[in-house]
Automatic annotation (TrEMBL):
Biased composition range(s): Acidic residues: 209-224
Gene3D superfamilies reported for this sequence: Hexapeptide repeat proteins (2.160.10.10)
Composition skew (Polar residues), residue ranges: 7-18
Protein name: Polymer-forming cytoskeletal protein
Chain intervals with Low complexity compositional bias: 193-208
Region feature (Disordered): 1-40, 148-224
InterPro entries found in the cross-reference section: BacA/B (IPR007607), Trimer_LpxA-like_sf (IPR011004)
Organism: Natrialba taiwanensis DSM 12281
Pfam families reported for this sequence: Bactofilin
Length: 224
């Protein structure tokens, strides 16, 4: 069976909103679903049906869902997974490397596309949006809680609505956000609404170095 569900009566634990995919150079493996094997719905083989869940949903690597996906919690598409429909999440959405959605992605929280991930539609996020190298969005990109006035989608609280477009990313539409970090090689085929700053390779390396320093500090504390 392509779709397996957790035992009936399980509930999604709200994700911590303090963590954003923009906080570090490398995404935390546990974000936004800490234990993927225990997700409320696990799609582990090709499926030709719409999927709707009151919790978290994981589409495992190399699996194709030919239908729409709706989750009250968070959604993860693992490497090379594909959804041939829309993705709507009450919390966060993560596309790992080479994953694809062939329609719009809407999330009450953050959205992250890793290397060479693609969305053939718009992104509408209540939180922040990250596009890592060579990721593509074939439509408008909107970030920020003020964008949402819908009964079916409640944005996460205290979200900044910021966007980071890393090296060789493409957005074939407008970008609307509070702030937009834009790598010189990133392309936006539309207007940018929001405070824009240049994201250089050096600044990415600096951020990565800060993460390493934090890890070293933790190691020192353990030694003590």
């Amino acid at each position: 069976m392509g779709v397996s569900a957790a035992q009936e009566g399980s509930e999604t634990t709200p994700q911590e909103t303090e963590y954003s995919p923009l906080d570090s150079a490398e995404l935390d493996d546990s974000w936004p679903i800490e234990n993927r094997e225990n997700a409320d719905v696990l799609i582990d083989s090709d499926t030709d049906d719409d999927v709707e869940s009151g919790g978290n949903v994981v589409v495992t690597a190399d699996v194709e869902l030919d239908g729409n996906l709706v989750a009250d919690g968070s959604v993860v598409l693992e490497e090379d997974a594909e959804v041939d429909g829309t993705v709507t999440a009450g919390q966060h959405v993560r596309l790992e490397a080479d994953a694809a959605v062939d329609d719009d992605v809407t999330a009450g929280g953050h959205v992250a596309l890793q290397e060479e991930a693609e969305i053939d539609g718009i992104i509408a996020a209540g939180g922040d949006v990250l596009l890592q190298s060579d990721a593509e969005v074939d439509g408008d990109l909107e970030a920020g809680v003020s964008l949402f006035e819908r009964d079916d989608l409640e944005p996460i609280p205290d979200a900044d609505g910021n966007v980071r477009l890393e090296e060789d990313t493409e957005v074939d539409g407008d970008v609307t956000a509070n702030t937009v970090e834009l790598h010189p090689t990133a392309e936006v085929d539309g207007e940018i609404s929001g405070e824009t700053t240049e994201l250089s390779q050096q600044s990415q390396q600096t951020q990565s170095g800060d993460d390493d320093d934090d890890d070293d500090d933790d190691d020192d504390d353990d030694d003590d």
